[in-house]
Write a structure and sequence with these properties.
By secondary structure, the chain is an alpha+beta fold. It contains 10 helices and 8 strands. Helix 2 crosses helix 4. The radius of gyration is 20 Å and the shape is elongated.
Amino acid sequence: MTASRVSLAMLAAVRETPSGSLARGLSLLAIVAGSPRRGLGLSELAENAGFDKATTHRLARVLVRYGCLVQDEETRRYRLGVRVLDFGFAYLAGIDVRERALPFMQQLAREFGGSVSLAQLDGADIVYLERIPASQWMVSLEMRVGSRVPAHVTSMGKALLACLTDAQVRALLQGKKLQPLTARTITTTRQLLAQLAEIRSRGFAINDEETVIGLRSVAAAIRGHQGSSPTAAVNVAVPSAQYTLEQLASELGPRLAEVAEALSAELGGAGPRTLAT
């Protein structure tokens, strides 16, 4: 599901650019990224891209040459190559917040025993930059670095959206349906904006089983570069059976806000601020 969401977003962006070899090559990568693990054959790839076979074969051959695609010698199907992973690692290595946040995340993991994550806003989704799995609890959310999730179903997403104005949030969500993951997930922009107002007031976001039943989380946004925009958000996820909402609000929330403020200061940013809606 994650690869599919990434590939669709990338493909839409590519198709808005002028046509050319680079744009067409990127569209092939996006399509292969969203394909099953077995990969795609030339005919399938051409059909999905809307190119003729000759053009598709020429572009794929170049991508194979540079390690962005690999072609199975037996099945002749194309899959992503290791070079794409290099790009991803290079991107992560260039994110200062990830390196700065890791010691704080390790401390939070020791304190609460839950999973600790770091994510960045990308459109109406969040993308995981770092994650420390839960050490004590059986209930957990299976996410990896690079996983993509709709912002409205997560505490990190809502903490990041709360850094925007209501007008910016409406523009970001225009034409999008807020799909639920559980019966507790908010599904309207009106509900979301009401929650964002509360988050701005208290300085952290709470997720009450909106992503996975049996799991609650708290998140706070990290700012950088003089606090102009949210750089990322950090959260702690714990089992609902172990932590009440009151504990999240009185214990975990203030601690997450403290960590986010410390990280914001290290990155040259400011702590939480109140926005006009």
